[in-house]
Amino acid sequence: MDSHDVQADLKHVLYTKEQIQQRIAELAAQIDKDYEGRELLIVGVLKGAVMVMADLARALHSHVSMDWMAVSSYGSGTQSSGVVRILKDLDTDLMGKDVLIVEDIIDSGLTLSWLKTNLESRGTASVEICTAFRKPDAAKVELDVKYVGYDLPNEFVVGYGLDYAEKYRNLEFVGTLAPHVYE
Ligand code: PRP
Known about the structure:
Elements: E1 10-15, H1 17-34, E2 40-46, H2 50-59, E3 64-73, E4 84-88, E5 98-106, H3 110-120, E6 126-134, E7 147-151, E8 157-158, E9 174-177, H4 179-182
Parallel strand pairs: 2-3, 2-5, 5-6, 6-7
Antiparallel strand pairs: 1-9, 3-4, 8-9
Helix pairs in contact: 1-2
The structure holds 1-O-pyrophosphono-5-O-phosphono-alpha-D-ribofuranose (PRP).
């Protein structure tokens, strides 16, 4: 879907398809360089990371393995609680592996903080994080994120994997939602 398909639901387009693809290509080039000569496993966190996993993996010039996790934060509403339940675990044994967790967004940072510690406890050689977007003003924990696409304002953002009530994930850009959609 492009901006014409959802024009009435949008406040602003924050990053266009072209800007996102350009940034993903830059991150991929950095990842290729940083992991040169090593075997990398990229781990996508369902469901939001599907878009960035697909684009990042194809922008890399190195072989990578891909695996997926699904996690759910305990608690109510849209707020992350930091207590995470694994809905789908990895198929891969992580012993000795270099792992890169790939996310669509880091909001409070609580989910990723838990996930990084969880994966590190499985005997990995390294665990780093790559996220398409981050909301710095929403951070509740300090989290070392090695690869960040773009920072976003602390507003209701949708697109490129980010949903509102499971819709808008398939926008090829990221934008803020008009208040009438969620009020
Ligand atoms: C989003 C995102 C992260 C988490 C970040 O997932 O993909 O996993 O929230 O929030 P935090 O930094 O406050 O912990 P969500 O739970 O919305 O699931 P989804 O990927 O299926 O949309």
